[in-house]
Amino acid sequence: MSIVFQTRDLATAERLDYWQAMVSRHHVAVSPEGAVAPDFEGRMKIDDWGGLQLSDTAFSPVAYRRGPREMKSCGRDDFLCVLNLGEGGVFEHNGGSFGFAAGDMVVYDTGQPYAIRFPRRSHTVSLRIPRPQVIARLPRADRQFALHLDGRRPLAQLAASLLKSASSLETLPDPQRCREAEAPILDVLCLAVKDVFGEDMRASPGQEQLLGRIKRRLKGQLEDCSLSVESIARAEGISPRTLNRLFAAEGTTAMRWVWQQRLAAAYRAMSEGSVRQVTEAAFMFGFKDSSHFTRAFKKEYGIPPSRLLLR
Hints:
This protein has helices at 12-26, 68-73, 131-137, 141-144, 154-167, 175-201, 207-219, 229-236, 240-248, 254-271, 278-284, 290-301, 305-309; strands spanning 2-6, 31-32, 42-49, 52-59, 62-66, 79-84, 89-93, 96-100, 105-109, 114-118, 122-129, 146-149.
């Protein structure tokens, strides 16, 4: 399904308010910051690719800010990848900033405050990605917050080419094919991220290598509803205390991590169409009953799992 909105046919005085309302409703809740030309123009086309949202946008010079008020107005805190096809811009967060040029991409967490500035007329292609889809591929992505991908790097160029091609299609594939394309699109983008930030994403020697091995093993056992701190530690030949320390270094617990992985795997399976029923997803990923799964899923993602099956 595609959504298109533009300001061209509106009175000048109405354009910016309309643009902000439509961008916040259909894309990401933001507020314009600073002076904006009275003859502001903007056009956005939004396509759904399974659980992904791809937006092709052209607009006059503008700066957007997303703070606590904007985050509170929308329950979603997805990741956003912005491919800049116009002239340069600036991304600001945590008191710092970095610039980006034509062909560069910025990948960032919309669950944290930021500002993004486009001082000249711009054209972007943006990919909005549900958090579990990113964390499943880049487990430490939520620690990075904002990543700048240099458009001169080959894998960044490959990812950019894919996004541009997908956004330029006049007719989308049928919904099932769009859903099947979701994983390959994300895999290419995450490969470009790893190409730039691979050393930061990988575990360091010693305990983090041990933790990485434990996580890989647990990902193959998500369907086992009998997993516990004691059983995991015993299988790894370490004490429960050591296991708890390993996960505590990442700000979580072993069972909390397993629980999040189960929900993320279920989200991915349902959004990509590999399971067809909520009950099937629940039992496939280690939940003893579908009611518990539904409650946990809605608490984590703000939507019932059945909604993913209706896309």
